[in-house]
Amino acid sequence: SQQGEEDPQALSIQEGENATMNCSYKTSINNLQWYRQNSGRGLVHLILIRSNEREKHSGRLRVTLDTSKKSSSLLITASRAADTASYFCATPGVPSQGAQKLVFGQGTRLTINP
Amino acid sequence: KAGVTQTPRYLIKTRGQQVTLSCSPISGHRSVSWYQQTPGQGLQFLFEYFSETQRNKGNFPGRFSGRQFSNSRSEMNVSTLELGDSALYLCASSLARTGELFFGEGSRLTVL
Description:
By secondary structure, chain A is mainly beta. Helix content of chain A is about 0%, strand content about 55%.
């Protein structure tokens, strides 16, 4: 089973608008990461937030982490056509999942319309 | 610094054949992980290697195997290919065990 689950599965907005994606996870974590994947390409690391952090910024990206709710959100402000991609949250694996390095959610497919 | 390099980028095989995919990690990275990505199952962990040793293995049949060489380059092999093995195979390297993963562009395998 997935550790992280993104919501929504798909999101379509107009260029210039903000996009918010959510991730929920099941077990305690010490960090959570977000990745972006352009169609058919490799994943690119966006940001890592540690369990003792509540919010983190990187350019137009803002990530929040609420460990009490076991959830995280990724906000992309002033979206651009180039932001069209799939976005994944990833959490450290747990022993029941084979202690893999990172477990990825199913992703949110973001489409920015010009 | 060069990124993670995967070869080949695209390949087509027929059922029953075998395939070997190669991954060259970022210089200095000793951990290499492999993931299979399909539209239905998403990103599924295959295995992780560190210093030539397999540290973890995902829930895949024995047809899927891998290895890592002394220069940290890694290969994965899939024998007796099935249609369901068609996927994007992604390799990622990292420095620390729970740190950021650096992904290659993937090898897209199509099994006919």
